[in-house]
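Subject: for your reference before the review

Hello V.,

The reviewers asked for a structural picture of the protein, and I figured it would be easier to keep everything in one thread rather than splitting it across files. Below is the amino acid sequence we used in the manuscript, unchanged from the supplementary table.
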Amino acid sequence: MSHVLLIEDDVSVRDAMELVLRRHGHDVDAAGSGEDGLDLVRRPGAGGIEVVVLDLMLPGMDGFEVCRRIREAHTMPIIMLTSRGDDSDIVSGLEAGADDYVVKPVTARVLEARIRASVRRVAPAVRNREDFEGLVLDRAGLTVTKNGVPLAIPPTELRLLLELSAAPGRVFTREQLLELVWEHDYFADVRLVDAAVGRLRAKIEDVASRPRYVQTVRGFGYRFGPL
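And here is what came back from the structure prediction:
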């Protein structure tokens, strides 16, 4: 099972979620504020944290800022919790670096499924090293370099890159990528795909607005180049 960091300020919600996660076999660290959560991420040995479940509406430092600060130094999956399902909150959270989201109240079954899916995204793939005109993917080691420079790519974006690059030239719809990478198919969640593509392009493209590797096929979805 996974080592989960839960950041949630509502004591009753936090205790209930922690209990459910522990019953499913996860190790859980819990924090009631963004500042306390960051302290847990930054402590010695915090590399053992595999997934962060992060409430967006926190007192003091909000979840958006916590997400951005975690992303400055860490690539573990971040699942954000939002109480309203508001589009602006969801988009802002994804742009801050979150990999997935769930709307509260969330059932134990859904949260557990999302955590398992996020962990599977970082599972090693059994394939060889591939060079796409300077963008080198090591599928076994799960590393990416560009022109010899290592790139720090969070697991969701890495899984997206691996799925697209496994079939260069093939057009994937957003719905197909949602099922392959996030392992769920709720139609409204296609915005997860667009946000992840945007973050990925910012890391691997020379100019994100003129992508060579991850190209938009208008009206259909995305394909992998390079062209």
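For the response letter, the relevant points are probably these. Residues 143 and 224 are 18 Å apart (CA to CA). The mean pLDDT is 86.

Happy to draft the paragraph if you're swamped.

O.
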